[in-house]
Amino acid sequence: MEPNVNQTEEKLTVGQKLAGLSGALLTLWQLVKFMGVGGAGGIIQAILQYVFPVFFDRFTTTLPDWLDFLYREDTLFDTNTAAGAADAAKYIVDGTVTWGYVLPFFLANIIANIFCYIMNKKYTFKSSAPRWHFVLYFVIMVLTIVFVTWMQGALYPLLIRAPWDWMHSLARLLLLIPCGIVQTIVFFIAQKLLLPPDPELVEESKAKADARAASKE
What's the start-to-end Cα distance of the chain, in Å? Predict the structure, then answer.
């Protein structure tokens, strides 16, 4: 007598069930793993945004004219406070923001998202996509980061002018929330399209799940 299908499914481990997902459920599981990897990337980005100013504050060269749209220098810092006035004197030269202010945000974002791409390619999407897919993704990533950099420039003045002092010191960290939402949407869709699963890697994942299940029996 053949075993009942439901009984067979009950015997499957969580790993086996996840390894056998497809369609909408697979996409949902990929999104969960994507956000988990993104959390690790967010930690890396947050740390770098506080570390990089140590090296880049000395960069006093101003942004070129074609990047003027990224920031409104007159509202970027709260010059009514000592800290805001000091930051304005440090990061604004001749009425234009310096690279010393921009690079910590931009490079931290780039590095964190390259890390996420590599991790998602291997563990989330199980893909062996060619290198030119990364080149295309890199273009999408840079354009998105330019947009969120503009968002950061627009939101930073609001945070440092908030009536709560604790928010001022955490302004750089808090900026990750809205910018992270935008990037999560864009980057997940881009990676989902550019990192098609490799059947061999998928089967390898299923085999490992089966092996783990067998070892527990």
Answer: 22
Kindly list the distances between the CA atom of residue 208 and the CA atoms of 7, 19, 99, 189, 203, in Å, as whole numbers in the listed order. Answer: 22, 9, 48, 27, 9
Q: Record the pTM.
A: 0.76
| Residue 7: pLDDT over 50 | no
- The answer for residues whose C-beta is within 8 angstroms of residue 29's C-beta and 6 or more apart is 18, 21
Task: Give the whole-angstrom CA distance, residue 114 versus residue 92.
Answer: 29
**3 state SS of 93:** strand
Tell me the per-residue pLDDT of 127-146, one tens digit each, with 9 for 90 and over. Answer: 888 999 999 999 999 999 88
pLDDT tens-digit series, residues 11-30: 555 555 565 566 788 889 89
Burial environment of residue 54 by CB neighbours within 10 A (0 to 12, 13 to 18, 19 or more): exposed
